[in-house]
Amino acid sequence: xxxxxxxxxxxxxxxxxxxxxxxxxxxxxxxxxxxxxxxxxxxxxxxxxxxxxxxxxxxxxxxxxxxxxxxxxxxxxxxxxxxxxxxxxxxxxxxxxxxxxxxxxxxxxxxxxxxxxxxxxxxxxxxxxxxxxxxxxxxxxxxxxxxxxxxxxxxxxxxxxxxxxxxxx
Length: 169
Hints:
Elements: H1 2-11, E1 13-15, H2 18-26, E2 35-41, H3 53-64, H4 72-89, E3 98-104, E4 110-116, E5 124-128, H5 134-142, E6 146-151, E7 156-162, E8 165-168
Parallel strand pairs: 1-4
Antiparallel strand pairs: 2-3, 2-5, 3-4, 6-7, 7-8
Helix pairs in contact: 1-4, 3-4
């Protein structure tokens, strides 16, 4: 299983910049296959555990049943289901509080992951012919890029923050 998880992580396009991810997804052309958009609140609970996996398994299982049995759409969706769960079962960096996953195996095994230090309000799953971008756009809007200047008579420091973390110094 460790090799499967590692392989999925290697195949995923990962980013920690929500604005860049949003810019890349805006121009996604609709496809005649299910495109999964999954937003997860990855904060840990009182026991230090992430609690999104039961939500993911349940929601993806229910959605899989909505496709015609053995259809191309169901096959693509089920491949994405397995890939997403394997990815999420792997190790996520501790500062990650929000995860956005976009997948469509029928579109050249397209699999994009956003790992953010800012959380999504709640877990959400969307299935359409293109990525659902509203939660990502809202995250970008809530955690706008800003700069802080610390200065005294001898020196100055500039810090740039975006998505809940320092991105430049």
